[in-house]
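Recall the central idea of this unit: under ordinary conditions, the amino acid sequence of a chain determines the structure it adopts. In this exercise we apply that idea directly, starting from the sequence alone.
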Amino acid sequence: MNLLITRKTYYAMGLAAAACTMAAAFLGLAGEGAALLEDLSFAFTGLMFLFLSAVKGSPVGEKRRYFLGFVLALAANMQWSQSLLPNYILLALPWPVLGWAESRRGNPVDRQLRFLALAEALAATARVALAVGVWGIAQNPWLCYGLEILAAAGRGWLAMTLYRLELTRHKGEK
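Accordingly, the structure predicted from this sequence is:
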């Protein structure tokens, strides 16, 4: 049996990560915890970045951009201090780095990148506001979950676009 693992496989991991994040946010809206889904999302995201940085024949600059995304994802899940504020800010960075790296590769993902960057910025702002107890946000955490769903949708849109672009490239090679 010959397994063919390509960029499509890695982008599928990104889709799985976005789906886990979205499911965790929906469970949060329902008042349930979803730590396992968040951990799975982190694992899929980290693996996607690591595997993309290890693609043979890729330019060194491209590999560095993907590795930067991995480092940011890893840093977002580390306990930096008693406050989680650095983590909340770092959580918004890995996926826009993926969009930026893919845009630098020549993939037409500008709309997805703009939407994703805005959604991640809004979600990060809501997480920080909830953490510091801004009035209105602390009483309505559903806003954070709603913006997290929006960010997950942006991640999924980017990953699906990249998957489809790679699928058409792969079909063109055959």
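The chain has one domain: 7-173.
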